[in-house]
Structures are given as C-alpha cells and as structure tokens.
Amino acid sequence: MTNRTARAVHLSARPDGFPTARDFTYVEGPVPEPAPGTALVENLLLSVDPYHRGLMDGGEGGFDLGAPLEGRSVGRVTASRDPGLAEGDLVFHREGWRTHALVTLGRDGTRKLPGHAGVPLEAYLSVLGGTGLTAYAALTRTAALREGEDLYVSAAAGGVGTATGHIARLLGARRIIGSAGSAAKVAHLTGALGFDAAFDYHDGPVGEQLAAAAPDGIDVYVDNVGGDHLEGAIDVLREYGRIAWVGAVSLYNGDRAPAAPRNLFEVVHKSLRLEGVLVRNHTNLQKELEDLLVPHLRSGRIGTDTTVAQGFDHTVDAFLGLFRGENLGKMLVRIDG
Q1: Separation CA 23–CA 26 (nearest Å)
Q2: Residues of the chain where predicted confidence (pLDDT) is lower than 50
Q3: The pTM is what?
C-alpha cells in the first residue's frame, strides 16, 4: 500500500561555498492526488548530482527557496489519470528529491522504462541514465572517439567517469587513463574497472602526472573537473585532439581557479577542438546507448557502478558526500532504506 505521507527536500538557504545540512529542510505533507493527464509516482531511487550545486545559487533555471529540489528519479506508478501510464509502470522522471511526484508522460523527459530483464534498477540512473548518456554523447558525438585512440578522463571514479571508461573500452579505445582524489579510487580504477593507468591528483601537478602516464600523448580528454586538469590535458593532447567538456567540479563551490588555462592558445597551435556537452541535447541517443550496454550489463562485463545511500533521510548526506569524495561511481539514494 502506498504511504499516505509525502516527504520532500526543500532548499531553505543559498549555500555560501560548500553547502551544509543547514541549507536544506525535510518537509512532510499529504500525498498528492493525480489530476487529469497526470500520474502519481512513488519514487524508488533518487539521483544526486554535482550540477545541482550550481542550481542552488538561483537565477534563471535555478532552484527556488522553500520548494522541493528536482533531480532524476525512478519510481512506480501507483495511480494514474494519464492515458499513457498505467498503475505498476516503472517511470524515469525529473521530480526527484521527494518520495512522491506527479508526472506526465513525455513532459520534462518523463518516460516509461523498458524493464530490461537482468538489468538492475540502479542502471537506469547510472550507465543507462543521464550519467551514461552524457559519457556516450561525449565520446561518440562530441569527441568522436575512434578505435585505437588514447583517452584521459578526470574525476574518473565518479558517475560520468566510470561510465566513460566502460563505454570507451567497448568502443575500442587503446589506452584509458583516469585521475581521481584518493589512492583507494586510483586502485579501484586500475583494478576493478580496468583502466590502463590512473593517478591521484593530490600527488603532484596534474600535467606532470598525466605526461608520465601518457608519455606518447592522448587523443581525447573527457573533462569533469576543469582548472588544472584541463590545462594539463591541453599540454598532453596530440595534434587534432578533442576535448569533451562535461563539467567543472573544481568551480562548483566557489573555489578559486584560473579563469582560463594558461596554455589555452595551444588549442590553436595544436588544432585542438574543445566543445561542451549538455546531455539534454542528446536524448535521441537513449536507445543507441541501451543497445550498446544492455547485453554487457546482462553478461556482467560491466556493472552499474553506484554508491547507494539507504533511506530518504540520507538524501542530503548523499549529496554532500559527492563533494567529500565519498562515492565510487554514481551516487544514488534508495527511498525505502
């Protein structure tokens, strides 16, 4: 039976730098009733993502104070007045950070999940969700990775980073190099995930460590960090190399970093290409992504690569943990604990 109390996380204050638990409030209320054209979904899994931090500053497209935050979620329909959704359907939508949501099929990315046999639910918010789709678009469209090329990915132990490693290997990358924020994560990259080389960016200048890991250079860089990681990659990229810029975690909490890499003119000198990646521009690739990955998820060749916090009460803790480096792969919250 559906729980008749709905809970949500509200943003109660604009974070100043690194967010704290005091910036959020857990709010209870009645479970909403679906109006014509909507369906009630009881959420099962929530995604917390680094990009949420920027939205907390407000402005156009940002989060409002005193209102539920939003994020990717997977849930089950418990009541429906939407002709496209039936009770029991599994749904992907963007009304997360709450236990219950009203959704409409096709609006704001809401879609029924195919329920691939043998594929864990967590996959739909990690390698088969926006995380995996970002990595896939970065590699196949933005950077156009070719078989036999060498790749570097920063924040490689995070959600997009681990997905990038898996997909690059399936696409035939020759060498895959990653950077991360601890020795344990470096060991995870080269051990469990099969990266050819990895380094801890705390151990020395990123450019020097990357040059040592890739003495012959790289062809593609998938950037999740910006700052000195981007500068180091520009130095090591070969002529006609490509940069798919996904995120800049080094800047999300107001951290001081150079406005631009000091070697930015090398983009001209080496005929490099640098292009940003927004996953919302690549939703047409969803089936292509699933066709590639589902067989390998079923066989166990790749995993979902998730860190799952248990219980809705840990939503804020999970989000803050992203910036403390507490996740391996995608950080998720399982509602029921």
Answers
A1: 11
A2: 1
A3: 0.92
